[in-house]
Structure formats: structure tokens, C-alpha cells
Specification:
Belongs to the binding-protein-dependent transport system permease family. With 301 residues, this protein is mostly helical. It has 13 helices and no strands. Helix 4 crosses helix 7, helix 5 packs parallel to helix 11 and helix 10 runs antiparallel to helix 13.
């Protein structure tokens, strides 16, 4: 059996590794090559232009505009989603009435409701919320008018001042349920004695959350932060479905730039250069997020 270990490992590992290399690593490598050309995507003829595409990026105002919107997503999406997820998970798992350290009644039903958006595809979410934001027949404006807040009703996805905020709100709505369940599962491993001791000492729920729950769940929060940072950088699908980067490029993101330049303008070389920059930005942000959120692990005995 000892001598047969390596053939067995090779049998099970080499085929999936070969498939991964062909379908994942190979396209990445081809993108790096294409980014140094002026290929238009349809013909076999192209010229090698070296770093000209990357120099062009530096002076492209649309790229800087898209990067700014990705930065807003990077700042707001993880913070709002994690804070809201922690709050809801705390209320569901240790937010019982009268100071009892128990979950609220019907917590499993609430978790199912919060998690429901995860069962929908991005396409369905985009179409659904486009209709909700519809200025004439949308549920949001109809609800505001029904309660006498007509002045707050507006063209949500057609106003450059609020379109990006509307898209961010949908991204938070579609992701927070997953982290409610994730944080809730992590809280189940925290001994109830800790919460009971804090309650006996007179600690408020706010203090309990930030001085007990957050430190003990820090590893889970770190993972959530990295995933949400990647989602913030890769927000193309929802933006494309809901706004296509408009109005007036007010919701444009890097992924939308890659799509418009490559498939709209048939500049696959330049689009690949944008993709390469996006790849390194996402990689850098992930590494920085892991380092900034690193801290000593708290062990429970």
C-alpha cells in the first residue's frame, strides 16, 4: 500500500488539475498575452503593441471614474454588510427578551427569509430590483406614495446622484443573508457562559457585541471581509443588468469597462489590459485585507 500511494494520488489529482489548468489558468495566461496586442477579437491579424495599452489606461478618464466607483463599493459594501450581518445574527442567536441569552422565537424562519436572496441568481436579482426601482410602477415609489412620502419618490436608477447608492443597496440586500447565517453558525461555538457572565456584570447588548462577539468571531469576519472585497471589485453582472454603467457613467465599474471596450468597441487588446489591471488590483486588495485584519486568535478553553 505504501508503494502504491503516489499512483493513487496521481490518478485522483492529475485529471482535475489538468482541467483547472486548461479552463482557468490558460485563459488568464492568454489574457496577459492579448493585453500586449491590438487584437480586435474577430480576425487572426493583430500587432504586438507592448505596453501601449497600459499607457493608454493612465489617461483614460472612464477608467478612473470606474475605479472611483469600485472604491466606493470597496469601502461601503463590506462595512455595511458585515455590521448588518453581525447585528441580525446577534439578535437571532443571543438576543432573547428580558436579558436571556437565547435566540429569538422563530429564529430559523428569520434565517430562511434572510438567506432567500442567496437562492436567486444575479440575473434574477438584477431584473427584480430594476422593477422595484421603476419610477412609475415600481414597488418602492408606490410604497413611499402610499405612506405620504411623495417627495422621496424619484427616478432611482435614472438619477446620477442616487443610482450608485441604489445599486449598493441591492448588493447589500443580496449578500447580507449569507453572512447572517455564517455569523450565526460561528456564534453557536461560543459558550453561553460568556454571554451570561457579561449579562450579570451589566454589560449592554452593544458592549457584548463589540467586546465579546466580534473578537471571538474575528476569523470569520476576516473571511467575510475578503469575500465581500472581491465581490465589490467584481460587481459587473449586477451593474450590467440594472444600469449598464449609466446614467452618464455614474455606476460604471471596471468590469463594465472591460465588457464595453471588448464587446462594444471590439478592442479586445485594450479590454484585456483592463482585465489584467483588475486582476492585480483584486489580488492586492485581498492581500492587504488579510494583513490589515490579522490579529491574535482568541482560544476558548
Amino acid at each position: 500500500m505504501k508503494h502504491g500511494k503516489w499512483p493513487l494520488l496521481a490518478t485522483f489529482l492529475l485529471p482535475p488539475l489538468a482541467l483547472y489548468a486548461y479552463f482557468v489558468i490558460s485563459p488568464y495566461a492568454q489574457t496577459f498575452v492579448i493585453s500586449t496586442t491590438d487584437w480586435h477579437g474577430l480576425s487572426r491579424n493583430y500587432n504586438v503593441v507592448g505596453l501601449d495599452n497600459f499607457k493608454r489606461l493612465w489617461n483614460d478618464e472612464h477608467i478612473w471614474n470606474a475605479l472611483l466607483h469600485n472604491l466606493w463599493l470597496l469601502l461601503l459594501l463590506p462595512v455595511v454588510t458585515i455590521l448588518l450581518g453581525l447585528f441580525l445574527a446577534t439578535m437571532l442567536n443571543v438576543g432573547g427578551r428580558s436579558g436571556r441569552i437565547t435566540g429569538v422565537w422563530g429564529a430559523s424562519v428569520y434565517k430562511l427569509i434572510y438567506f432567500a436572496p442567496q437562492m436567486l441568481s444575479v440575473a434574477v436579482i438584477g431584473v427584480l430590483w430594476t422593477e422595484v426601482y421603476n419610477p412609475r410602477s415600481g414597488l418602492l415609489n408606490a410604497g413611499l406614495r402610499a405612506i405620504g412620502l411623495d417627495g422621496l419618490a424619484q427616478i432611482w436608477l435614472g438619477d446620477p446622484d442616487v443610482a450608485l447608492a441604489a445599486v449598493i443597496a441591492v448588493m447589500v440586500w443580496s449578500n447580507v443573508g449569507f453572512y447572517v447565517v455564517l455569523f450565526g453558525a460561528a456564534m453557536q461555538s461560543v459558550p453561553k457562559d460568556i454571554y451570561e457572565a457579561a449579562a450579570l456584570d451589566g454589560a449592554s447588548r452593544f458592549a457584548t457585541m463589540f467586546k465579546i462577539t466580534v473578537p471571538l468571531l474575528w476569523d470569520t469576519i476576516q473571511v467575510a471581509w475578503v469575500y465581500l472585497a472581491i465581490i465589490a471589485m467584481d460587481s459587473f453582472a449586477l451593474v450590467q443588468i440594472m444600469t449598464r454603467g449609466g446614467p452618464s457613467f455614474s455606476t460604471d465599474v471596471i468590469g463594465e469597462r472591460v465588457y464595453d471596450v471588448s464587446f462594444g468597441d471590439s478592442q479586445f487588446g485594450y479590454g484585456s489590459a483592463i482585465g489584467v489591471v483588475m486582476f492585480f488590483l483584486t489580488l492586492t486588495i485581498t492581500i492587504v485585507a488579510l494583513r490589515l485584519t490579522r490579529r491574535e486568535r482568541i482560544e476558548l478553553s
